[in-house]
Amino acid sequence: MTTQSSAEPTRRDFLYIATGAVAAVGAAAAVWPFVSQMNPDASTIAAGAPIEVDLTPIAQGQDIKVFWRGKPIYIMNRTPKQVEEAVKTPLSDLKDPETDQARTKAGHENWLVVTGICTHLGCIPIAHEGNYDGFFCPCHGSQYDSSGRIRQGPAPLNLPVPPYQFVSDSKIQIG
I need a surface site. Which of 4, 79, 149, 166 has the fewest CB within 10 A? Predict the structure, then answer.
């Protein structure tokens, strides 16, 4: 009669280990979708993530429109004349009094960054239109100056300034 030592692995030991390994892989494969579905959707991450905008292609007097969180954001490179007019506008002439300095970043006064949604009924105003060389909402006639401040029409508030910062002299981060 032959006896085997308990120190040597048997065929049965191999089957136990192999079965356990397959069960562990199967359990992980079954749990993975449940864990994965708890992560936010890629479009949700992209919608709230900050964006960087290169300012070098925007010539003086021009503007661009980008989208952040599904909202249009106007970035305007204002001319010295536009900046001067915005700075010297008396606060008493404004429905929603706010200085131009409060709406721009120090050292970058020529750059205006505003959310392009009219504060009256949510229309999208047109840049470089109206009596004040700023924004004009054709739906109901609201007119904003070159600082995005309401000057005429039914809109009650200025165009909002989104959170932004200058990453360098030629690049901003919105959000």
Answer: 4
Angle at 26 between CA 23 and CA 31, to 5 degrees: 125
As a whole number of angstroms, the distance between CA 12 and CA 36 comes to 36
75 domain residue, yes or no: yes
- Domain of 68, in residue numbers: 45-174
DSSP letter, residue 4: -
With tokens 């004349």, the residue in question is 81
Examine residue 40 and state whether it is found in any structural domain, yes or no.
no
Provide CB contacts within 8 A for 133, sequence distance 6+. Answer: 82, 85, 145, 146
**What is the CATH number for 170?**
2.102.10.10
Q: What confidence score (pLDDT) does residue 110 get?
A: 92
Which of 108, 120, 128, 140 is an active site residue?
140
Task: Specify whether 140 is catalytic.
Answer: yes
Q: What are the residues facing 174 on neighbouring strands?
A: 51, 164
Sheet holding 63-68, edge to edge: 63-68, 71-77, 111-115
Into how many domains does the chain fold? 1
pTM value is 0.72
Percent of the chain residues topping a pLDDT of 70: 94
How many other β-carbons are positioned within 10 Å of the β-carbon of residue 149? 26
d(CA 155, CA 5): 91
